[in-house]
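Re: that chain you flagged

S.,

Sorry for the slow reply, it's been a week of failed gels. I finally had a moment to sit down with the sequence you sent. For the record, here it is as I used it:
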Amino acid sequence: MSPRTELAAAIVALLLAGTFFLAPVVPYSASLGIVGNYQGTTTCSSVSSTYSAIVTSGSVTYSCLVEVPYQPVAVGGYATPSYALLGYGAPPYPTQAQITQGNSSALIFFQGARAVAAERIGPAGTVVNSPDLAVVRTTFVQAAFGEQNFTAVIRNSGPTGILIPTVAVQMEEYGENQSVGGLTWFEPDFLGHCGDSISYVLSPGTECKVSALLSLPYNVTIPYYVVVVGVRGGQHLFTRQKFIQSIPAEVIGPAWVGDFISNVNQARGSNPLAENSTLDAFAAFRFIVASSQPDISDYGFANSTTVFFGSGAAQAGFAEEILFPGGFAPGNYGTYLSEYAPGHWTGLTDTAYNEFGYFVGQAPYYTVSSNCPVTEVPSGGVNITQYFESHGCTVTPVGSTTWLVIVLGK
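Prediction finished late last night. Pasting the structure tokens below so you have them in one place:
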């Protein structure tokens, strides 16, 4: 074979190899629809039935309506021959694609040649990931009961106002995802919206904050998506941004309690609390009793005082504060209590008491919905679930959370 022939053969081989591995020439098509999207209703076949009664008989005809879905949407793409035959190379679809079916739009998420998930995003013509509507930052701040106070900051970088941007979050622990037709349809969990009215407009060049309490695991790194929707000049905007957050655990132990009591003592001024080993033992006893009935605040305190100290002990000489500091740093827990649990903070800073004991344990308790208008139980002996539900709040049992029992003595 001549050198020229060899060169030509090499070029042909390279072209064939390039086509095989690089050229997207193999057609693919996926037929997809938006779950729950119907163009209207039609009358189904009438159903007749006969009946008889003591005085008369006859027949009645029932008519019914059925919902008519839109025709599926075909999503086309091209893959390389190497992908089609071997699974290597460029797949036929991007990781996400927008489809419009009738008056609705959705995002379809692909893994290779297969659609695996979807999310409704709004009406037809919705603009996805417009740079004018963006999440500029998110934060997690430790809150009560081991929860995290999540905040998303939204910015309007466009030239005109955006009507009531609304924020939701999508992560494994949140949302009402459903599987339909082999697709997982994401239903992000609503967190809140900018402003305090349905007519709020986020002005150009300004930011707003949306916050909510989330119950998340500790010592993990969580990927999640923040979803924001808004309307600008009659056009719907949809933004979906990915974030990754590490959720550290704050260990509640002697060092933590020592720092916390130090902050309490700063608020107490010239009358600091001193730790008492007998009160430490009493706090351990109180944890056992109180956690046996976590639905009743300060359960059995009066009886515990008599049992532990004897019938001659004056109950008035002791007080108790049961706290749930999981996730808090000791430096900011006092600030939280003073704002959201002022009755408990007042008890800790009451200068009528000069000694304390404590115990830390794990036991069941409850979380309360973030929109609850009340943030603490006002006294002992209160049914916690009934109290919060009477204020329109949702109470959710938690299998195990950190209890910090502090008893005070004179």
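What I noticed first: The first helix runs from residue 3 to 22.

Talk soon,
D.
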